[in-house]
């Protein structure tokens, strides 16, 4: 891997990393840091693998990810592994921090709190909330969707790689006559994201705080939302949706608290983080899942094992009592590990999960 050109404003001492589908899109992974050669190019040796690798360059965080020629968010790059070694040359056109991102959140998206307490983790987090268009002009009660990685849900100005457009999608579905829902978005903890989004420890990437985080969702945040707003609090009216590591923790939380969360949208899940432990947990500990609905989404080339991991999990869920009709899978050949893909597919997932 070689970078032959960088934007002129790039500092001479800049550290450039390759966030990618092999390292769970970690923006500052030292194992994927490019080093300058004698000609001033940034180079990195990548181990041979199979399939297609998606990647994007950063200066160590998503606020300084590469952009397109206009300084806007760019699509993921792709590399298809071959039998022979190859040199892939790249030119970085801009850094996103050099661009001014627009505020794209609609009027019915609010900041619930800038520092909502998470006592289970001894920290706090910004929480977003989306209100249905008729929330303040009616007395209706609504289903609730809890979503991870709130930075990327509603507002392009806060996102690291584009937004899901949750508000625009649900506003459009409401205008078309579909049922409405409240959406509560919990921002991730940045450097703590991997730790909080997995109950198990990965020797390389961390993890292990997922139980505390899911307890926060079930025992702190959900009771607060149900007390403060007009909700339909039953599990059948409550969903968890997340992607990548957010998909992993949403899946786990739904398994651990089926009496709280009855609808799960699992997008491009990082089951690889500790598939053995996850599989064991589903087999040994998951119970009372007969009423839970699962919507699995993945691109067929996102990673070597993503689709097969999902397919392996389905018969286990059925064995645990989940009716086959409560499980929906959608695998897309053009699906990428990206907000643009998840944004495109959110509406269909929402309609399936809440069709009843």
TrEMBL record:
Organism of origin: Chryseobacterium gotjawalense
Keywords annotated in UniProt: Hydrolase
Gene Ontology molecular-function annotations: hydrolase activity
Protein name: Alpha/beta hydrolase-fold protein
InterPro entries: AB_hydrolase_fold (IPR029058), Esterase-like (IPR000801), Ig-like_fold (IPR013783), Mycobacterial_A85_antigen (IPR050583)
Pfam family, one: Esterase
Superkingdom in the source lineage: Bacteria
